[in-house]
Amino acid sequence: MKRLLLVLALAFSLLMAGCGGEEKKAEETKAPEQAAEKAPEAQPKTLRLAMAADPVSLDPLVQLSGGMLQYSHMVFDPLVRWAQDGSIVPRLAYKWEQIDDNTMRFFLLEGVKFHSGNEFTAKDVVWTLARLKKSQDFKGLFEPFEKAVAVDDYTVDLVTKEPYGLLLSMATYIFPMDSEFYSGTDEKGLPKDAIVKTDYSFANINESGTGPFTVVHREQGVKTEFARFADYWDENTGNVDEIVLTPIPNDASRVAALLSGDVDFVMPVPPQDLERVESNDNLQLVIMGGSRVITLQMNGERNPALADPKVRQAIVYAVNNQGIVDTIMKGFATVASQQAPEGFAGYVADLKPRFDLEKAQQLMAESSYPDGFACTMIAPNNRYVKDEKIAEAVVSMLSKIGIKVTLKTMPKAQYWDEFDAQVADLQMIGWHPDTEDSANYTEFLLMCRNAETGYGQYNSGSYCNPDVDALILASQTETDLAKRSEMLQEVERILYDDAAFVPLHWENLSWASKKGMNTADVVNVQNFPYFGDLVIE
Amino acid sequence: MVAFIIRRVLQGMMVMVVIALIGFAIKQSFGDPVREITGISVSAEEREALREELGLNDPFMVQFGRFLYNAAHGDLGQSFFYKKPAMEVILSKAPATLELVFCSAILIVLLSVPLGIYCAIRPKQLFAKFVMGASTVGVSIPVFLTAIMLIYIFSIELHWLPSFGRGETVNIGGWQTGLLTWDGIKHLIMPTVALSSIMLPLFIRLIRSEMMEVLQNEYIKYAWAKGLPPLRVWIVHAFRNTLLPVITVGGVQLGITIAFTILTETVFSWQGMGSMFIQAVERADSSLMVAYLVVVGFIFVVVNTVVDIIYGLVNPTVRITGRK
What we know:
The structure holds two protein chains of two kinds. By secondary structure, chain A is α+β, with helices and mostly antiparallel strands. Chain A has four domains: 2-38, no CATH class; 77-173, D-Maltodextrin-Binding Protein, domain 2 (3-Layer(aba) Sandwich); 211-288 and 509-533, D-Maltodextrin-Binding Protein, domain 2; 293-507, Roll (Dipeptide-binding Protein, domain 3). Chain A is 29% helix and 22% strand. Chain A has helices at residues 2-20, 66-75, 122-132, 167-171, 202-205, 251-259, 274-278, 309-318, 321-328, 357-366, 387-399, 412-420, 438-445, 466-476, 481-498, 519-522, and strands at 46-51, 80-82, 88-90, 93-100, 103-108, 145-152, 155-160, 213-219, 223-228, 242-247, 265-267, 283-298, 333-335, 373-380, 403-410, 426-431, 501-514. In chain A, the strands form three sheets. In chain A, strands 1, 8, 9, 10, 11, 12, 13, 14, 15, 16 and 17 form an eleven-stranded mixed β-sheet that branches. Chain A has a four-stranded antiparallel β-sheet with strand order 4-5-7-6, covered by helices on one side. In chain A, strands 2-3 form a two-stranded antiparallel ribbon. The longest helix of chain A has 19 residues, at 2-20. The radius of gyration of chain A is 26 Å and the shape is globular. The N and C termini of chain A lie far apart (62 Å). Chain B is globular and about 85 Å long. Chain B has helices at 2-27, 33-37, 44-53, 60-72, 86-121, 126-140, 143-157, 182-215, 218-226, 230-268, 273-282, 286-314, 316-323, and strands spanning 78-79, 84-85, 170-172, 175-177. By secondary structure, chain B is mostly helical.
């Protein structure tokens, strides 16, 4: 018996020893001002935050994504930022004025400190814009910008190549970085300002911004700890002392963590759990209509039937997008009839959703394909909320007007190559404009495909209407916002009449937190919660 | 013994090369990592340039050859998402998974041995019937359902146990352990139970049926006739011979347990190799995926080798046959 136990013990010790050899040094990255071990959660106000993913890097310019911008708003401050009502409000720039057609002058706050202790001045803005223009992800957005010029320490001019109506919107993406901190070389002899996507870089693991929080401890994919920046310039803000951000990718687990009280704030909330969160007395749920539109593109070049305007109309009329929102999305979306949601420059109030099965059948009968036809369709299955279910619903809706659709769904990691290769007649795509502006939808989704200019990069239906292109191009240099808005509305009307795409819905945004926080005040349609302003009672 | 180990090591290396080859062959179909590390509005040329820079445009054999060459030097490639060598990422996640597997293996052994023996020697008792019934239920509930039920009962309703993560960990020579803090242990309980829920019933049933078979043998009857005390008959004579098949199955199952950690870790947001792998697949972080497959292949090989050695210790005939 003893020997047996020995053998068993040996078995385990051998196994553990075999794997125990794989030890290694501590792997977590640390910010320069590295505080001591986690403080006991006694007096300081700690926000335990769970998101679907954590920031991929500490360098805000490594990737243009919602997650990275959310991070940027915590650790950095933009020149200006969006308010909840869609207006643009001062941050590091307290005032701005148009000097000439191509130049906007920004007046900067004085006495603002970076996390490193360096003073924030105009040279940091100049440096950051130059770096933005080098970033693979941001250079496209900042293409219209020529340069930034420091007039004096606290005044900076942003100069565009041509008059640019979106200049101020783009300034919400300029998060000045500490030029002194990021200049020179690190101990490995590598430049500190290098933008590196897949390997070590100084900026990937160190930060110095002006934002309300500093990164105290970061273990990628496990948790990130933020502490309030003691010298933060804006004293009129929230009272959160530290934030512990944990990524919980699994929807059910993220909600469970909130329901069990292990975290205080989660985003996003999956549609199937909205009711549970809402009915819980200790929790509050905040929902807003978002700007990511889900659409289907119809490729008339691949399938001649889809080139027939009547057929395209029939498809749009046959898709019951209200039904999709009600049953599949559980009301957690807004039915769309156009690309841009209400509040955007191009939104046209009188364009209504078109579901009408009889009209659809009638249109089919009048088309050159009265007996219907067969076509193919692809959709992702883990990119948008309920994407696969939506695609399946569309298949059955189209079968009612005699269109037999063969659907293939796949994970997002594989989807985009197939999408670009235009492998199917109907392809699903959702779009959230990086510029928070109407024109961006059309530029990427529906302008004529042009490899040189990059317009129509995601126009997998190969829709092409020169009038639309002309209007969008004209809108880019139009600085009179009312005129610009008219042009963009005209575009939406043309797209509507042409049945350029099948509009489904705009995904809603959701945040859930414990009661006793001003959650509703710090969130916005851009989905950049301003945690710096969060107040916990 | 030495020849045996050398043979096993060579076999193991072959296995790992084959795994790497398969991993490499399928990684393309998992998607394009460049898509995952760039924003959606980045132009096609920018992407192409990045792809070229990362060597993703090279022919398959060139990429695989480069991988083998680097792997022989201990470099399994670079994780695109973590921006670190894949091996470093895996090793940083290994303690979480190994502690989970270790604890659940202990739980399985501690429970399945006495319960299995009891059910074998007292099959007619009500408790034995209950155990058998419960084990049928246990084996047929998928592990993620068990996990979600546990979270619902113990975290959401009772607020006894935390629902996710590892809690507070202590760093011992680079090994982040959750076993030394009360918080860490509280976090460990539910994942351990969930992970055990698949293997435990299996082991109880296995031990029971093997034991019952052994109890029918002539030498047991002789032991009874000789008037040996029951405990000695059951434990020393019967159970010892029951162990052989159990160890074999156990070794293989331990490997499968590692596979099941993928589900358990995902539900509990346990930051181990399993959830890392799932996320690598979702992010098309292909180098990390391939590296994970190779490392897990390595663990399988090690476990099976160890099992064979133990088997030899318990049953000398294996060694003797091997020596021929």
